[in-house]
Structure formats: C-alpha cells, structure tokens
Amino acid sequence: MRLLRIVPDDTKFDFMRFRRISFPVSALMSILAISLYFFHGLNFGIDFKGGTLIEIQTKAGDADLAKMRSTLSGLGLGEVQLQQFGAPNDVLIRIAEQPGGDAAQQEAVTKVRGALGDEYDYRRVEVVGPRVSGELLSYGVIGLGLAIFCILIYLWFRFEWQFALGAMIANVHDIVLTIGFMSVTQIDFDLTSIAALLTILGYSLNDTVVIYDRIREMLRRYKKLPMPDLLNASVNQTLSRSVITHVTVSLALLALLLFGGQAIHSFTATMMFGVVLVGTYTSVFIASPILIYLGVGTGRDSLTAPERKDDKP
Amino acid sequence: MLYFTRWKAMAILLTALVICLFAVPNFLPEKMVASWPKWAQRHVVLGLDLQGGSHILLEVDTKTVRNDMLETLRDDVRRVLRDARIGYTGLVVRGNSVEVRIREGTNADQAQAKLAALSQPLGGLLSAAGQRGLDIGTEEGGLIRLTITDPALIERVRQSVDQSIQIIERRVNELGTVEPLIQREGTDRILVQVPGLQDPTRLKQLLGKTAKLDFRMVDVGSSPDQAVQGRAPPDDDLLYSTGAAKTPYLVEKRVLVSGGDLTDAQPGFDQRTSEPIVSFRFNTSGARKFAQVTQENVGKPFAIVLDSEVISAPVIREPILGGSGQISGSFTVQSANDLAILLRAGALPAPLTIIEERTVGPGLGADSIAKGKISSYVGAAMVVVFMLATYGLFGLFANIAVAINVAMIFGVLSMLGATLTLPGIAGVVLTVGIAVDSNVLIYERIREEVRGGRSPINAIDAGFSRALATILDSNITTFIAAAVLFYIGTGPVRGFAVTLGIGIITTVFTAFTLTRLIVATWVRWRRPQRVPI
C-alpha cells in the first residue's frame, strides 16, 4: 500500500528569507487587528456585558420574527435583538442589561415570558447581572495574562530566555490576530471565546515548542552552521509533522464546526482560525525567524567562521 | 527504548485496562450498575447544558446584614446604658457606626467600659487572633462611636450564608428534584444547581423570597390614606397588601409573634369557602404569646405580614388558644403550597438576590448530546482514516492508542465524577486530533532516522527516545493553558478545561507507554527489515 505523503522528504524551503515579508505583514495585520478592536469593537456577549439571552423555539410552525419584535419592543426593555438561530423555528432573543441592578434583570425575563405566552418552548435562558459580568470579564483577562506568564516561566526554565521571549511574541501575535478575527466576524465574545483563546495559546505554543526543540537540538549538534540555515533546516525537518498534525486537528475541528451545532459554533470557528490559520503560520514564520533578532546562538563560532560543507545537516 | 520487562509491560496494560474499565458504568443501563459496589458506580455527570437544568447564583444582601447589625447594636447600646443608669442624649446610626453622646457630668470612662463589653472577640476561622467585633472610639463632648469592624461584618455574612444554605436546601428539596447542588461560593454567594427542571420560575420564586412572617396589630387609630400622603406615625409601618390591589395598611412596628415560632405549616382548603389556605401551628412559646395577644385584642384587626407585605388582616373574633390557625387570602393552590413550603423551611436571615441565572431546557440538552455525538464520531472517523492513509500499519497502531486514550479519558472523568459539558465534548474531539500528534511526532522522527541511515530497529528506538522529550515539552504548555482555564472558568468552560487537561495527561501516558509497547511488541514479533512508514 502506498502511503500518503503530504510533505515530500527533505524539503529545503528558505523560510527565513520570508521574514522580510512575514514580519512587516504580521506587524501590519496586528495593527489592523488592534485598530479593529478599538474602532469596530468586539461583540461582547452577556457574560461580559450583562443582560439576558433567551433561546426559544416555536411549538408549531416557523417563528414570526416581525411579530415577536413588535410584541417585545412594547415592553420597554430598551434594546431587544432577535436573531434566527440555526433552524427557522429557533430564535435567539438578546436583551441589554436593565438599569436597576440584579433584580431588574429577572423582571425582564418574567416580562418576556408573559408577553410571548405559551406558543414557545424556552430552550435556554441566561441572565447575567452587572456585578457578575464585570467579574467574569476581569477573570477572563487575568486568566489570559496568567496563562501567558506561566508559560513564559516554563519556557524560560526549559529553554534559554530568548526562546521564551520569541514564543511570547508569537503568542501575543496569535491572540491579537484572533481578536481581530472576532471583531471582523462579530462573533459573540463570551467565556467560551476566552476558552478558545487559551486553547489557541496552548496549541500555537505546542507547535512552536516542537520547532524550538529541534532548533535547540541543532544548535548543540551543528556548532558552526549560520543561524538562518540552522533555523531553515529545523523548520524543514519538522515541516511534515507540522502539516500532518494540523490536518488532524483541522479534521477534528471541522467535524465540530459542521456537526457540533450552534451552541459551540463561535467557539470552534474561532479555534479553527486561531489554531489552524494563525498558529501554524506563526510558529514557522514568526516564532522561528525572530530568534535571529533575539540573538540566539550569537555566542557561537558560526558568525565568524565560514560554513563548512560537512556541517550540512 | 524498545525493551520492556515482562512485569513492566503487564503493569502498563493493567493500568490502562483498569482506567478504561472505570468508563464502563457510563455505557450500561442504570439498573445494572445499581447493584455494584459504590466505588465502581462512579460515572461521568452530564453538565446542565447537556441534561438541562438551572444554574442560579445568589448573593446575600450585605447591606441588609449590616443594617440589621447596626440596629441590633443601637438597641444593645440603649439597653446597656439604661441598665447602668448612664444618661445620654443622641443615639443614632451613622454610616457604619452607632454614635451616642454621653450626658455631661456623667462618667464617660465608665460608659465606655460598659459598652466595651459589647465588642465580642471574633471566633471565625478567617479572623486574626484578638480581632474584635467593634472599634470603640471617643471624641470630645462625650461622643462615643462604635464601629462594626469589617471582619465582624464578613463573619456575619458568612454565617447568614451558612444559615441560608440550610434553608434553601429545605426549600429546594420540596420541589422533589434529583440531586440538587447547593454550595457556598466565596464569602457572600450561594450556587444552586438543579438539574432537569422544565421551568425554573417556581424555583426562583422559592429562592427569592425571604419568607419573614410576622403577626402584628393593625393600627386602627389613624387612617392609612393619610399616611400614604404624609408620614406614618413613628411606631407604625405603612405596608401594602399583596396582589394587584395594593391596599395600604398601617401596621404597628411591634411584632407579636414571628415566623420563627412556627413548627408546621400545611396547605389546605377552607371548609366553608373551599378556598386554598395555609394552616399553621405555633410552638409552645408562640402559642402562649398568640393566645395572650388574641385574648387582649378581640374585635381588633391584626395583620399577617410576609416580607413587608400584608397577606391578610383579619379581625380577631375570639381568642385563639390552641396554638394553631390558618392564613387565608386570595391564594391559588400553588401559591398556598409554596407559602407552606417557605414557612416550614424558615426565613432567610437576609434577602438573597439572583445575580446570575443559566437555564437550559431538556430539549436543547438532548439536541446538544446528539450533536456532540455526531461530531465526535465524524471527527474521530476522519482522523482514523487519515492516519491509516498516512502511516499504514503504524497508523493503525496510532488509532488503537488513540481509542484507548479516549476510553481512558472517560475512565478518569468517571473516577473523578467530573462533569461533561458540550465544550467538554469538544475538548475530547480536540484531544483526538492532538493525541495523534504524539504519534505523528514519533513516526516523523523515525522516518528521519531511517533517512539518516539507521537500521530499522535502531531508527525506531532513536525515534522514540528523541520524540518523547518534545512530546512532554509541547504538552506541558497546553496543560498550563488548560489549568488556568479550569481555575478561571465556570460551568461549561470548566468542563472543557477538565477534558482538555485529562486528555493531555492520558495522551502523554499513552505516548510514553502504550504506543511504545505496541510498536516494541510488533518489532519483536516481526523483526522488520524495513520500517513501513
């Protein structure tokens, strides 16, 4: 049986040369993502903004959004958003946080239930009061920061500090781009988004660490190889693994995206973007070449001595 | 790397087998499992997002607790000074303190010494040694200020959370639901999780009521309508009736008998009007008080007040000596039933506010389970086929290892009695994608070593020993992310962190032991001349 070879053996792509393109492009994309965050904003879900989310399903027939909208707008609850959710008889109602503290949120739900009557099944009701939403947001931000910090410390112990710093820059780059993605798509930004971000962090690093491991090994073995060549060799040697792993992860995510349903749709979509698109790119085109600038291997003979033929990996 | 002693191989297989066996109860009908010993019955708990149910986070109203403390303190100060015959002028609650001005010419030091007795040392676990409940300071002109310390307030809030939890348990148990979870969150919060509720409205009604029941006299001396416009007399409260009518009543502040004196309350029907009622019985002291009050006030109306609303204000026709009575007042069968539940369970020490609610109906939960299943099967199938296509026989080894890996995840989840949520299922699917990564790392390394000119067995050996370090490094970073997520997350997100974290551990375990054992066994058996990858 002939086995599938996605990446041929002994590839010799000059990945490091791309840094003259990839660094400016990434910088530009990051700036774009940050300005998107500030000017376009994220679509904060009720976890972080407070308010009420109700998912209802008509007991018979399709949902009449226009009729529901007019019924609900008469309740004086401020901004009420209606959205078809998956099926034509499934509707998501979002109500902005009510002034008047926690009890007022509960009253809003009671009012909506009263107004809509018995024609609907209440599939999901989520009410997050103002205090909880504030806490959840700060927990999320603290969590992201804490994770980055812990991983930094771990990498610092396992590698040299330059590697830790390089991985960190790559990491922040991933997160920034993913946030840009969430801003463009206006995907709900809620607790599961934080989960998605943390997972992206983990997997992007996973990838970076695999390449770094190889770079470290090469550094020990080939004392005189110039840094760009050494990095190129490391990325090329791990290329097959990177590609195959990303195919398997994408397959798993694709299944979740297609069949996992609306409830985890934004979660998997974010992850797909972060893990598959950004994470792979970052570890090859950012995390590895940046080591040149961070001065990994500057203490070696390679920079002075000419390359020797037998040093080629 | 490829040599396993017999006992080591046995130990690896046995560990994997035992962990996998723990997953078995999840797949058998409940009846069958019920006869097993307790430790073997442990199984994965479905999260509220999968089985449907309500997650409600309640918060004790700290302000009310503090106000109650301050009022009690003010009464205590009045009592102490009166008992000690110390004259004072102003006695007021101001901010977080009670202030009293000792009359000139009296001994201020003596007053302070007497009042110092009110400051009890705190016995709570969280308070430092020597921490007291009050700060007592004096100022010029005989002003003594007694301030409630923060630790004392926190201690009291903790106590009222503890009491509230007991009362809530009694209330929720009356709903007859299966395995409700009621636990403290932080100092001032209570988490209530009730699985399988179709409509949480009733639960919320039962949770949201303080259920403070008082029997008080109605002040017939002045008209409530005047009080509505102006000020109520100082000894009275202006209260309104329940329901839409909102009739105003002037009710004396003095409580004759309170709900704490009730021993029982039952819903029933009035024999004459067949309206729903709640009948109740007092304990001995309550019965005595009630008898005395009703004897003295025949012909006058008294008010039954629940949470500052007048349920009814009947006129006392004859002394009620038996210690039991009934409350009637436009109840439905349900509301009479609920009131009885609330009265039996007792009043909350302070009002609770719902600050977060997440309810999932059973229909959505079932849908989510179905979607989780389909996506898992499809995802797993695609990964399995891809691995077979890429690595052939070794792909099969990887698939076996991943299958055992997933079984072990469920085994560990069962052992821990962990909660499986929809994002948790996503975590498992993702683990499948990631678990093969460890195999990919090993196999790619073996390919490289073969290309480097090593003999097959040598290459396999070197492939394993070099890849394992990388596997460990790369998984630890993801594990850190999962651990942080577990720490900050709640509910479904925490479920994701749990399966992801466990998945990483089992992945590393299988990579280091099972995959190696499978390949080693194959190598010993076939003595391969070339590596088929």
- In helices, the fraction of residues of chain B equals 40-55%
Task: Give the overall shape of chain A, derived from the CA principal axes.
Answer: elongated
The SSE string of chain A, one letter per element, is: HEHEHEEHEHHEHHHH
The proportion of strand residues of chain B reads: 15-25%
Distance between the termini of chain A: 30 Å
As laid out across the biggest beta sheet of chain B, the strand order is 11-10-16-15-9-12
* Main sheet strand line-up of chain A: 3-4-2-5
Count of DSSP E strands of chain A? 6
Q: What is the β-strand count of chain B?
A: 19
Unreliable stretches covering 5 or more consecutive residues of chain B:
none
Overall mean pLDDT of chain A stands at 85
Oligomer: heterodimer
Can you give the helix content of chain A as a percent range? 55-70%
Largest sheet of chain A: 4 strands, antiparallel
Kindly state the mean pLDDT of chain B as a whole number?
86
Radius of gyration of chain B: 34 Å
Q: Could you describe the largest sheet of chain B, including whether it forms a barrel?
A: 6 strands, mixed
Cα separation of the termini of chain B: 19 Å
Provide a count of the helices of chain B.
Answer: 15
Structural class of chain A: alpha+beta
Count interface residues per chain for the largest interface. A-B, 81 and 79 residues
Structure summary:
Chain A has helices at residues 19-39, 46-49, 65-73, 101-116, 130-158, 161-185, 191-221, 227-259, 265-287, 290-294, and strands at residues 43-44, 51-58, 80-85, 87-95, 120-128, 188-189.
Please describe what this structure looks like:
The complex is a heterodimer of chains A (313) and B (533). The C terminus of chain A is likely disordered. Chain A contains ten helices and six strands; from the N terminus they run αβαβαββαβααβαααα. Chain A is an alpha+beta fold. Helix content of chain A is 63%, strand content 12%. In chain A, a hairpin with a 1-residue loop joins β3 and β4. In chain A, strands 3-4-2-5 form a four-stranded antiparallel sheet. Chain A has a two-stranded parallel ribbon with strand order 1-6. With 533 residues, chain B is an alpha+beta fold. Chain B has 15 helices and 19 strands. Chain B has a six-stranded mixed sheet. In chain B, strands 7-8-2-18 form a four-stranded antiparallel sheet. A four-stranded antiparallel sheet of chain B has the order 3-4-6-5. Chain B is elongated. The mean pLDDT of chain B is 86. Chains A and B meet through α4, β5, α5, α7 and α8 of A and α7, β18, α11, α13 and α14 of B. β5 of chain A pairs antiparallel with β18 of chain B.
